[in-house]
Structures are given as C-alpha cells and as structure tokens.
Amino acid sequence: MSITPEALEPEFTLTTAATRLDFLSRRDKGETTLNTVRDADDENSWASFRDTSLDTYEALELLALGEVVSRKAHGSQLIGIRAALRGGASWEQIGDALGVPADFAWESFHDAIAEQLDADAAAAARELAGSRPGR
C-alpha cells in the first residue's frame, strides 16, 4: 500500500486523522539521540522495545496524515466562513480568525465557492459575502 494523503483521506475523519497524527508525533519527538539510522541487528534486540522512535511506515504515515488533516481542515473553512457571515461577522473579523487580511479572506472564500459549490449555492454564498473589503 502506498502511503499518500489520497490513500489515507477516505479512511479517516478529521477527528481520527488528527488523533492519529497527535499519537504518532508524540511517539517521536525528533530528539538528537533518535537522529541515527537503525542497524538491522537493533531490530532484534531487547533495546528495540524501549525505542519509541517511529519506523519508516509510521514516519510516512505521519507525513501523509499531516496533509490529510490540513486538507480536511481547509475544506471546513467554507462552512466556518458562511456561518460567521450569517452570524454578522465582518470580513475584518473573519480575516483575523484566519490570520490573514480581510481582502485575502474574501478572495479565499470566493475561490472555495467556485471549487466546492453548485451554481445555486454559489450564488447564495456570493450574496452572503457581499462586496470585497478594502485594504
């Protein structure tokens, strides 16, 4: 099995992907003592039971899960922005929540509308968005 975000994404919800990512990242903190290549003989010794570093499969899984979490979280941004707009939030507030300028948040919202919504839903979302905020 290839360890890619595309392979893992259908297998995990955002919650389970984040939980697994957290578990794997806690196992291997990247300490300098772990920055050595394992010897094949080490795999068969008792010392290997104390080793909490990730094996190659787990390390690749950690990388792919990071991307899965990022994609799934980014996908929920459209939902969050629409909810914030319905609640009366300004583009400045939305931009602050995303850590970007208001006009960039507005542009990202419109990009997400084009990518994720059908024509009717897109028209309603554009109306909800209002005009582009000034810089």
Q: Strand tally, please?
A: 0
Q: Characterize the largest beta sheet: strand count, sense, and whether it forms a barrel.
A: none
Strand content: under 5%
Question: What oligomeric state is this?
Answer: single chain
Alpha carbon gap, first and last residue:
48 Å
| Tally of separate domains | 2
State the secondary-structure class.
Answer: mainly alpha
Mean pLDDT value: 87
Spans of 5+ residues with little confidence (pLDDT < 50)?
Answer: none
The number of distinct helices, counting runs of at least 4 residues, comes to: 7
What is the helix fraction of residues, given as a range? 55-70%
Q: What is the element string, with H for helices and E for strands?
A: HHHHHHH
Shape summary = elongated
Radius of gyration (CA) equals 21 Å
Structure description:
By secondary structure, the protein is mostly helical. It folds into 2 domains: 53 residues; 53 residues, no CATH class. It has 7 helices and no strands. α6 packs antiparallel against α7. It starts with a helix and ends in a 6-residue tail after the last helix. The mean pLDDT is 87.
Properties at a glance:
single chain, 135 residues, mainly alpha, 7 helices, 61% helix
Please specify the SSE layout and strand pairing.
Elements: H1 5-8, H2 14-27, H3 56-75, H4 77-86, H5 91-98, H6 102-116, H7 119-129
Helix pairs in contact: 2-3, 5-6, 6-7
Task: Offer a quick outline of the entry.
Helix content is 61%, strand content 0%.
